[in-house]
Amino acid sequence: MPNRMKIHQLTEDQAYASLHSSAQGISEQEALRRLQEYGPNRIEEIGKRRFLASFIKEFTHFFALILWLAATLAFIADWHKPDEGMAMLGYAIVGVILINGIFSFWQEYRAQKAVAALRNLLPQQTKIMRDGSIG
Q1: What is the pLDDT of residues 84-124, one digit of tens each?
Q2: Gyration radius of the chain's alpha carbons
Q3: Cα 59 → chain centroid
Q4: DSSP string, 1-26
Q5: Per-residue burial over 114-130, b = 16 or more CB atoms within 10 Å of its CB, e = otherwise
Q6: What angle do CA 76, 82, 85 make, to 5 degrees?
Q7: Distance between CA atoms of 46 and 52, rounded to whole angstroms?
Q8: Bridge-based pairing state of the strands 129-130 and 133-134
Q9: What is the three-class DSSP state of 125?
Q10: pTM for this entry
């Protein structure tokens, strides 16, 4: 792992140098150049999925589909040759799908709530310094 210097460990002059800036800020031209190169300085909100769509996704991803197929095959096998325990296997697979889907959905839901709470802690507006003037 590369040895990276953290900004909080730098002196003021080192921090300005690492950001290619100064105590007077950057020029308007440099700000425009950075805007073109890096885009706007904001946190993009990831498209929110609808509650139901997010829930359904947990039961229809690739691995879940394979498990649905396995459960279906177990039920078909039980229909052809009953009393061999294949129905029990089918129910067990469906149980795994349901437990995994509900747990995954709950984890993702909680993570989205945590990200939203963190976003609310961030300032929505800030002042900038361009060529020594606060704007």
Answers
A1: 999 999 999 999 999 999 999 999 999 888 888 888 888 77
A2: 27
A3: 19
A4: ------GGGS-HHHHHHHTT--TT-B
A5: eeeeeeeeeeeeeeeee
A6: 85
A7: 17
A8: antiparallel
A9: coil
A10: 0.59
